[in-house]
Amino acid sequence: MPSPAPTPRRVGRPRSAQADAAIMDATRAALVEVGWGKLTMGYVAARAGVAKTTLYRRWPNKGELVVHAVAALFDELELPDRGSLRGDIEGVVISFARMLQRPETNASLMAVVAESTHDPLLREHIREAIVDRQKHLVLQGRERAQARGELPPDAASSEENERLVDLIFDVIAGAVVHRTLVSAEPVDEQWAEAFTTLLLHGLVAASAPRGRGEGGSEGGYQDGSA
Amino acid sequence: MPSPAPTPRRVGRPRSAQADAAIMDATRAALVEVGWGKLTMGYVAARAGVAKTTLYRRWPNKGELVVHAVAALFDELELPDRGSLRGDIEGVVISFARMLQRPETNASLMAVVAESTHDPLLREHIREAIVDRQKHLVLQGRERAQARGELPPDAASSEENERLVDLIFDVIAGAVVHRTLVSAEPVDEQWAEAFTTLLLHGLVAASAPRGRGEGGSEGGYQDGSA
Amino acid sequence: MPSPAPTPRRVGRPRSAQADAAIMDATRAALVEVGWGKLTMGYVAARAGVAKTTLYRRWPNKGELVVHAVAALFDELELPDRGSLRGDIEGVVISFARMLQRPETNASLMAVVAESTHDPLLREHIREAIVDRQKHLVLQGRERAQARGELPPDAASSEENERLVDLIFDVIAGAVVHRTLVSAEPVDEQWAEAFTTLLLHGLVAASAPRGRGEGGSEGGYQDGSA
Amino acid sequence: MPSPAPTPRRVGRPRSAQADAAIMDATRAALVEVGWGKLTMGYVAARAGVAKTTLYRRWPNKGELVVHAVAALFDELELPDRGSLRGDIEGVVISFARMLQRPETNASLMAVVAESTHDPLLREHIREAIVDRQKHLVLQGRERAQARGELPPDAASSEENERLVDLIFDVIAGAVVHRTLVSAEPVDEQWAEAFTTLLLHGLVAASAPRGRGEGGSEGGYQDGSA
DNA sequence: CTCTAAGCGAGACGGTACGTCCCGTCTTCCT
DNA sequence: AGGAAGACGGGACGTACCGTCTCGCTTAGAG
């Protein structure tokens, strides 16, 4: 996919790539310093050594600029193969948490999400730039686990499949985000292990064929010892 | 400590309780209409039929006003006894989700949380007003389940106990919030059921005595059919 | 004229004379400190150790309060008989200037006059409280000079008489005020003497019967030496 | 000193001269309509068809704006040569009074002066913008009269000279201002003539060599008839 | 010698204007 | 054409006073 864009006009002086990078850096730095609410275009521009005009030539408003700057941070999320489902989950939990604990991400993610609650375009923007990117990791991990025989293969209905992936994604991302940003407690190895244990057992049940799942409630905690 | 509650000696004209209520209502209504970002003190005041100064006499700024207005919404969260752990979990998930889906909560919660990422006082405010209030529900549900024999009694170490409650809280609240606000998908009965199933199995494992928890990873999905 | 007021009601607690005095003092002190523009009722009240209500119970607004406080200062103006018209003029000039140089008067007079330029009621108030009181001194001095034979007796027309008194008053008060407040130079003995000399010669001409007055322009300065 | 006046290197969008003029006009109009006390920046801005910020970009506060607007009015003061000292004095008196009677000047001058009583910078501002400009007229008139032989040439001491000019200035300006603003009576031809007569005789005496001036007090009013 | 109408301190109230900050747009000149 | 500089129209901010309005307490004179 080299360049489907139909020749984007090449007249006049080209945009400075240097400016671009400086702006991204300045935006992230400013987010750390003052947060979304007090972040001003003027300050970003000044810090980047650039005129305000230059910002507006690239992004239509504050929101877009910040989302753009934040989204890039999510690119580094990866899912190294640790050989087991448990290992993979713990890995992603810890690496996701590590990212969220960096102040620029911390401050930015929630700010951007909050802004999105009454801005559908921004919400779509976030979905593309952040959510889908992360969801891909869940899929990848699941496939590996299935290959290893740790999880049953895909259900018949692809719709049901997607629902399951979405659920797992919301549980993992939700728990990590909530602990980091709302409870404001660190996601350390201990927490990651406990969470993984919880998830792992749930996963097995959730992935099992329908009609069996609700067994948990009756079985009680004596279940395992039988 | 000479006087236990010495009648705070109110002098001068007392604050109007009417105004207080009108402001809270106006704030929530305004949040629905325009969202956090465009909510203005002037508009809230006008809508409440009150002078802007009256707002500032009670709350030092927009943030505090909104947190206050939003926090009250969390008071209505309850945990009706549905007779089983599964029922209780589904109940709280759905009622929490229902609350989050109401536009005023939707817009406000994240906004307020986002604001808190660089405002420790606000963060403490949130913890008191919202987080602790919710955590209480988790405790309550767990006690009921223990009484019913659905979950094992408290672990020996109270520290470990607290860790577990915190974990469960982050998982429930996180998943619901994430699905509602980030994934922007509805929390319907179907999702609540699937989530509950997942959580239920995880819960049993997580609540079990240490040293057994990690069994899940090896056992695989064939576990149940053995 | 002992009390034409038809018994001004004597029920209830009478107004505190102490408060009255404290308010007047506080007002004048505040005028010195911050000037009219920044003088606030709250500050005057606080400084007088009195509630704002107490101020408004006595004067309907800031303007009236200040005029009242300032007018009292003019009461002390007197015209001691120095035995000659020249002496009397120098005396009044210096004592008037001395009053104007006191910071509370300095700041207040112009402020009040300025305020009066678009407030006819206040203007009338000033005329009664300040202007007429001063004009009386001019009349008194003139009568003494006439008695001494330094000035001709009143003209036939009383209207013309009044015009003359007004003119003299405007010249004296105007010159002193202008030097003090606009030119912002001190009215010392030297200036007072020079001004008196100027006025004295003018006075003789102005007081002379009509039809002769314009002689000055032709006569030139050689006039006296002839 | 490499560059004597290096072309101040104007960068960025220049200030709109149109806006400048509109603001001055609006300020003067507003002064007439509502007076100093009720003049608001918002109203001036609206009337000028300009944003409030544009006002504050040019003047730091209401006071400076108004002084600036008013000072310009004094530019039109001139001293047309009427051929005689008497004529010149009457001319300047009447044209000065005419200016003061215009409502915008009326309201503004005193307000600005009042404000200056506790603001040394403003006072200096006024001196430069208004007082010095007027004093120049006195000098000019005196020189003409000296050339015509109506007044004696400058005294030996230049210091004494300056004192005399200042005195005359305070008398003329003071009398006109006082009559207009404090006594609140019109300066008509009749008053101007009477005042001029008074001043003219005083002038001759005051301009005469020292040691003779005080003669007036003894001579009495019979002086002229001898 | 009580009763009671007014005075009083305190401070909340509805308002108006302030002067500031930032937004996103627009000129102007320079590269 | 891009970019730096900065003025512009606009909107909201949070503050400061205004003059009014409860409150509950105090106080002196009328009954």
Tell me about this structure:
The structure is a homotetramer of 226-residue chains. With 226 residues, chain A is mainly alpha-helical. Chain A has two domains: 17-58, Arc Repressor Mutant, subunit A (Orthogonal Bundle); 72-210, Tetracycline Repressor, domain 2. The first copy, chain A, has ten helices and no strands. Chain A has helices spanning 17-38, 41-48, 52-58, 62-71, 85-101, 103-116, 120-148, 158-182, 189-207, 215-219. In chain A, helix 4 runs parallel beside helix 7 and helix 6 crosses helix 7. The radius of gyration of chain A is 21 Å and the shape is elongated. Mean pLDDT of chain A is 80; it is low at 1-9 and 210-226. Chains in contact: A-B, C-D. Chains C and D meet through helix 1, helix 6, helix 7, helix 8 and helix 9 of C and helix 1, helix 6, helix 7, helix 8 and helix 9 of D. The structure holds a DNA duplex (31 and 31 nucleotides).
Give a topology summary.
Four copies of one chain form a homotetramer.
Chain A: H1 17-38, H2 41-48, H3 52-58, H4 62-71, H5 85-101, H6 103-116, H7 120-148, H8 158-182, H9 189-207, H10 215-219
Chain B binds a DNA duplex (31 and 31 nucleotides) through residues 10-16, 19, 40-42, 45, 49-54, 56-57, 60-62.
